[in-house]
Design goal:
The protein is 32% helix and 32% strand. With 232 residues, the protein is α/β, with parallel strands linked by helices. The chain has two domains: 124 residues, 3-Layer(aba) Sandwich (Rossmann fold), CATH 3.40.50.2300; 103 residues, LytTr DNA-binding domain (OB fold (Dihydrolipoamide Acetyltransferase, E2P), Beta Barrel).
Length: 232
């Protein structure tokens, strides 16, 4: 995930980069970080490759708000998170669809809260990646890698070919999210990734080499969803 930090104060840039590295270590998410000392420096080389821009508003030259207005002409996708000395400066952030703003001096926990919010916005824009708040921290998992999801008590177990991720919640809550990624209920405790189905048998679904139990109750809805997916 590509992150750009834009601030005219080098100590602030270094602090923010340190916070992102700390967040990465705690969450297990990988980031590539770039620094720019001004909005003009970013505009000079700007390409729509960044996922998140962390922007100081009050800077010499083209200020942060004006810079992001120019960026929005060519990049509607990038997530913008403002930092500022005065909250009033961030009021017009809605013009560029900024996700939030952070008041200086920046503490880690305030930053982590707002940064996580920005990551969730990225997730909604990129349906091929899920950010899972697991029992061991946040991880980014490509949707094609997921085979099935199983309810285990108060947790949901997200299964890939070689890893299981435990995420707190009920199957009903997770089913609502996963339907957008072409997962379908096949049994009271299981959702499968339609893209990874290898065989549909009586009483079981083969997904990525794993056997997942299926129920007659869900068979008709599964077959309808699977045929819609295949046609699509």
């Amino acid at each position: 995930m590509q992150i750009a930090i834009v601030d005219d104060e080098a100590p602030v840039r270094e602090t923010l980069e340190g916070y992102i590295i700390r967040y990465a270590e705690e969450s297990g998410t990988a980031f590539s970080i770039s620094q720019f000392a001004s909005g003009d420096a970013l505009l000079e080389k700007y390409e729509p490759v960044y996922d998140i821009l962390i922007f100081d508003i009050d800077m010499p030259g083209t200020n942060g708000l004006d810079t992001t207005r120019l960026i929005r002409r060519t990049d509607e996708r990038v997530i913008i998170l403002f930092i500022t000395n005065i909250a009033q400066y961030a009021i017009n952030g809605y013009e560029v669809d900024a996700v939030d703003y952070i008041i200086k001096p920046i503490g880690y926990y305030d930053f982590a809260l707002k940064f996580a919010k920005a990551l969730r916005r990225v997730e909604r824009q990129d349906p091929e990646v899920l950010f899972l708040d697991t029992t061991k921290g946040q991880v980014a998992v490509p949707v094609p890698d997921l085979l099935y999801v199983e309810a285990k008590g108060h947790y949901m177990a997200y299964r890939t070919a070689d890893t299981e991720y435990l995420v707190r919640g009920s199957i009903t809550e997770h089913e609502e999210i996963l339907r957008r990624h072409h997962f379908e209920r096949v049994q009271r405790s299981y959702l499968v990734n339609l893209a990874r189905i290898e065989n549909i048998r009586t009483g079981e679904i083969i997904v990525g080499g794993f056997s997942v139990p299926s129920s007659k109750i869900y068979r008709d809805s599964l077959m309808q969803a699977y045929m819609r997916y295949i046609k699509r």
